[in-house]
Structures are given as C-alpha cells and as structure tokens.
Specification:
about 45% helix, binds pyridoxal-5'-phosphate, 2 domains, ten-stranded mixed β-sheet, alpha/beta, 13 helices, Aspartate Aminotransferase, domain 1
Length: about 425
C-alpha cells in the first residue's frame, strides 16, 4: 500500500490508524501461509449450479414477458434486503438457532449488510460518540478494534481464558469504567463461537451471565457469530440472542463469508431502533445490497447448506487436527487453544519473545507466515488488571501468535507447522 500523499489535507484519523497488519502480511508470498483467514473449503460445484439456475430462470423470465421480474435481478432494491431472501434467513435462524422471529413478520427484523464488517461499522457509527466506552475480549477481532478506535471509543479489554471472555471481569469493569470515564460502557462485544483470534468457544453459562449483565446494566450486547456454522466438534451451543426474546438487548451478526462464500453479505437481527439507525447509515454507505447475491444466498440456504456444509466442515476439522498435532509435537513450552470450529489456533509461549520480530527475521525467510498476536490488542486502550481489578493501559502480548488452518491442506499444514515449531524452539532455547 502506498503512503498517504502529504499534499492533501487528510482527516486526523488517517494519521492515527495504520492499515491492517493482516492485509500487509497477505502481500508476502510464502509456501506455508497461516496468516490469513481465507475460507479454503467452499462448495464450488453447488455455487456454480446456483449461478446456472439463476441465469436460466432470468433468461426465461425475460423471454416469456416477465420483464419487470427479470430486470429486478439487476436493479437497485430495498436498503435492508429483499423479502425473498430475508424470509429464508428468518426461517433458518428460527429453526436452528432458536431466535425469536415471528413466523410471518420476523423477516423484517433482519437486515443485510456488505459482510458483517459493514454491520460492525454501522453499529459503531450509530452508537458511539468520541469518549464512549466499549468492552471487548482481550485479545479481540482486529476488524472490530480498529473502527472502534477510529470512531474515538475508549476500548476496555476484558481478560479471557480457554473458554473465552470471563463474565466476572465484565461485572468488575462496569463500575471501574464509571469511575474512570464518568460513564458506563455502551457496547459489550463478543464472538461466542470459535472466536477470532483465539478460537475459543463461550460455554452456555457464560453466555447467560453476559446476557444478564447486559440486562442489569442496560448495555447493548454485540454478538458476532461469524463462525457459528463452522463448528466441527463438540456440542452446538445456542447464541446469546436466543435469550433476547423481545429483541431488545442483543445486536446479532451473522455472515455468509465462512459458511457459503465470500459474497460480501452479512445478515443481522437488530433491535428495532438500532435497525432504523443502522439502515440509515448503510443507506449512505452503499444504498443497498446486490439483488443477484441475495438470490444466490436464498437458494443456498434454502436448498443446499445442510447437504454441503458438513463436507466443508470435514476439511476444516482435518486441517485443525493436523495443526494441533504439529504444535503438540514441536512447539516450545506454552499454551494453545483447541478449537471446536472456526479457523484459528492461538499460541502463547511460556518464555517471553517478540513474535513479530521472529516472523520478519526467521519465519518469513523460511517460507512461513502467521499473524503476530499483538495485532489483536487495541492501538490505544485499557485493560482490566487480573490481579487487583484496576483499569490500566492495555499492553499487547507479544509472545503470542494466531495460526490459521482454513486455507491449506492438512499435509502442508503439518509440514509447515512442524517446521515453524522447530524454528521457534531454537529461537527460545
Ligand atoms: C469475528 C469476525 N467478525 C466479522 C468478520 C467480518 O466478516 P465479513 O465481513 O466477511 O462478514 C470476520 C472476518 O474475518 C471475523 O473474523
């Protein structure tokens, strides 16, 4: 990426916010790439069949005089999405995830966005004034932290363990935020299933505890279930949103990106007043989502997902097993997560080291990429000190790594991870 042209008078935030570290790393061409989170098991045959089906239907509509219907496939549509698509999503969210959507009118509670990333941005845009407070897990999804920082939020990170965010610290954080910032948090952000970057899954008891805290303190819970459908082991746990029977507490985000294809289509269930504001924001961002992609989604979720997704999940499971085997055999002392789903393993070494320096000096020259864990802490923010429960400056843990297994095949993953483990062992010895 080229540097800002200093001859323009850019907005102040452009100087504060660097480009995404992950995007920059993706520019390196290496043999063993554990850096990105690209889905590697997509239902390509199904997707091409869907495109043919759509094309044939469109041609037939046009040639048999249904011109309005034929043209609507290629035209602007409602900002929040087309009824035919929203109805399919509503049925699935009700049936599988126990989300309380009315059989007849529930589809109106769902909106489409350009990936769930746009929903994240639009929610921050509508909820946060500079100086407002947000609680996130530590570490957290970079695509949430960076826009939150850009918009001027005070980001307070909450300790996590191998089960994700720890609700006791959320409870402790609230009065501490009131004392330090003069206000309670507006948003509690959580990725309950196989989160990015750690790959941990929040048990039901914690989901319920977070919901109760949100209710008690009147805080919006932003539940990002990007990896909800990518679950290959363990029991399936219902979303926090299933507790929100009157759709008033939880902004619930889902996406096609991991489970169907990177169509740049996210789907959210939002409380009514938030939906209104987010639609206003989206309306000025992109006017509406493409109708043809909604057609792809509707057909995929109605007819195919239950048949083809299990095949994709088998691939991710095989990849995860290969990565964990390689880590267990070769990595130096430390801890790592054991994901039930999603795309990532998180490793933290016992000995201190700087994983970014190691990446640049040793790993990339040896054809291996990963994302240094420091990328998943706020550029500037706060954290709850685990020992004495005070708010202190957030400090990134540099002895950590996010290792992605979604894209390569299991054989290459094992080969690359064992190579990385040996290099790391040598470095830390
Ligand atoms: C936790 C999480 N949330 C949201 C997103 C955004 O995904 P998309 O915009 O493709 O829906 C991602 C993408 O990696 C993610 O990991």
């Amino acid at each position: 990426m080229t540097k800002n042209n200093e001859s323009f008078d850019f907005a102040a935030w452009t100087k504060l916010l660097p480009p995404s570290e992950i995007r920059a790393l993706l520019e390196y061409k290496v043999k063993y790439n554990f850096g990105g989170g690209l889905p590697g098991a997509l239902p390509i045959e199904t997707l091409s069949d869907i495109l043919i089906e759509i094309g044939n239907e469109n041609k037939e509509d046009y040639t048999t005089g249904k011109k309005g219907k034929a043209i609507s496939l290629w035209n602007y549509g409602p900002t929040g999405g087309q009824e035919f698509c929203l109805r399919v999503l509503a049925e699935r969210l009700r049936r599988i995830d126990d989300i309380n959507l009315d059989k007849e009118t529930g589809w109106k509670d769902i909106i489409l966005t350009a990936g769930s990333q746009q929903a994240i941005y639009a929610i921050l845009d509508t909820m946060i004034d500079p100086g407002d407070v947000i609680l996130t897990p530590s570490p957290a999804y970079l695509g949430f932290l960076a826009p939150a920082y850009k918009i001027g939020a005070e980001i307070v990170t909450i300790p996590t363990d191998l089960d994700g965010m720890i609700p006791e610290y959320v409870e402790k954080a609230i009065p501490l935020c009131e004392k330090k910032f003069g206000k309670k948090p507006n948003i509690l952000y959580v990725v309950p299933d196989s989160d990015n970057p750690k790959g941990t899954t929040l048990p039901w008891k914690r989901r319920k505890a977070l919901f109760d805290i949100g209710e008690e303190h009147d805080i919006l819970i932003l539940e990002d279930q990007a990896y909800k459908e990518i679950q290959f082991q363990g029991e399936l746990i219902k979303p926090i949103k299933s507790l929100d029977r009157d759709n008033s507490r939880v902004a619930y985000l889902r996406t096609t990106s991991k489970e169907a294809a990177v169509l740049r289509m996210g789907y959210s269930v939002l409380p009514e007043s938030l939906k209104y504001e987010v639609l206003k924001s989206k309306g000025y961002l992109d006017l509406c989502s493409p109708t043809i992609l909604q057609k792809v989604m509707a057909i995929y979720y109605k007819k195919y997902i239950d048949k083809v997704l299990p095949v994709c999940l088998k691939t991710y499971e095989k990849n995860a097993i290969a990565m964990l085997k390689g880590i267990n055999e070769t990595f130096p002392a430390g801890s790592h997560t054991k994901p039930n789903g999603g795309f990532f393993v998180w490793y933290e070494s016992e000995k201190q080291f700087n994983s970014k320096e190691f990446l640049m000096k040793t790993s990339i020259p040896n054809d291996i990429m990963f994302v240094p864990g420091a990328a998943f802490y706020p550029i500037k923010g706060w954290s709850i000190e685990e020992s004495d429960s005070t708010i202190v400056d957030s400090i990134a843990k540099t002895n950590t790594m996010r290792l992605g297994y979604s894209y390569n095949n299991d054989k290459d993953i094992y080969e690359g991870i064992t190579k990385l483990g040996k290099l790391l062992t040598k470095e830390l010895d």
